[in-house]
Amino acid sequence: MRVLYRGDWPQAVWSRFPGSCDVVVSEKRLPVLRPGSGSVRVGFVSDLHLGPTTPPELAQRAFRELAAARIDVLLMGGDYVFLDATPEKARFLADLTKMVDVPYKFFVLGNHDLWTHHELLENALRDAGVTYVGNESRSLPHGLSLVGLDDPWTGAMDPTHALANVPDAAVPLFLCHSPDGFPAAREALGSGRRAIFICGHTHGGHVASPFGPVVVPGRVGKQYPSGLHDVDGVWLYVSRGVGGIEVPFRTYAKPEVVVLNLTPPSIL
After folding, report:
1. What's the domain count of the chain?
2. Among 42, 101, 212, 256, fewest CB within 10 Å belongs to which?
3. Which domain holds residue 141?
4. Average pLDDT in the 35-45 region?
């Protein structure tokens, strides 16, 4: 495959098609925070797949959209590269994150990252001010707690450990690469607690039909291939992501970034 894609010709060809670098901004309001608190705007981007099938202009457009969205928190859901992580891709990834000037930036890794020299990506993101949260939690404003999870298949996901320091009164916001981490997160969370779980990985099927995705990876991904879902009181958002893998083009699964406007129930 590396030989087939030599010279990055697929993304060069695809970038010439009208609309090939367009990115949808999917914005949703979720009234999950405590009454009387303020709101938090969370931006999410995943599956950039920097490499031979993703035009650089497409990745830049995604981050320009997030920079314009007035977000408070930037979350990055993994699969930053396709095939190899290189110093050049790591620098480009760091430069992309610098386009979004927000006080809180966090990332987890995806399976494609863990299959290559992911330390290059981790170091570049840390140097750019982005914090790694694999199986860790961080406090955010207005009673929100970020709960980062390692990739459920390629990594070593541990939601119980990740939740250990989250106060009972806080609203957990899970960040994971794949929706296949959702069942374990729900089990560790317990019943009757508000939470949000945001992830990517599925690409919305990537090459889909007007009637829905044709092939979606993972058991949970097949059930929830993309979009927002209320699963027994826990909000699940599965993003279609941005970039390409084996093929550069998408059908009926447009690249997207996500903005979640988290508010108390009283804010319209």
Report:
1. 1
2. 101
3. 6-262
4. 95
At 154, list the tokens: 């390629």
| Longest pairwise C-alpha distance within the chain | 58
Q: Is residue 1 part of a domain?
A: no
Interatomic CA distance for residues 209 and 207, integer angstroms: 7
Averaged pLDDT, 136-161: 97
Average pLDDT over residues 82-100: 97
How long a stretch of residues is the chain?
268
Model confidence at 267, pLDDT cuts 50, 70, 90, reads low
268: pLDDT confidence band, cut at 50, 70 and 90?
low
Q: Which amino acid is at 245?
A: I
CA distance linking residue 247 with residue 178, whole number of Å: 20
Q: What is the CA angle 268-77-204, rounded to 5?
A: 80
What are 194's two structure tokens? 């508000």
Give the tokens for residue 73: 């928190």
Rounded Cα distance, 192 and 185, in Å: 13
Question: What's the CA gap between 219 and 209, in Å, rounded?
Answer: 20
CB 229 within 8 A of CB 252: no
197 is a domain residue:
yes
Q: Kindly state the DSSP code that residue 127 receives in the 8-state scheme.
A: H
In this structure, are residues 225 and 203 in contact, taking their beta carbons and an 8 Å threshold?
A: no
On whether residue 126 sits in a domain, the answer given is yes
Q: Which residue is associated with the tokens 């709101």?
A: 39
For residue 65, what is the domain's CATH number? 3.60.21
Residues 6+ apart with CB under 8 A from 24: 254, 255, 256, 257
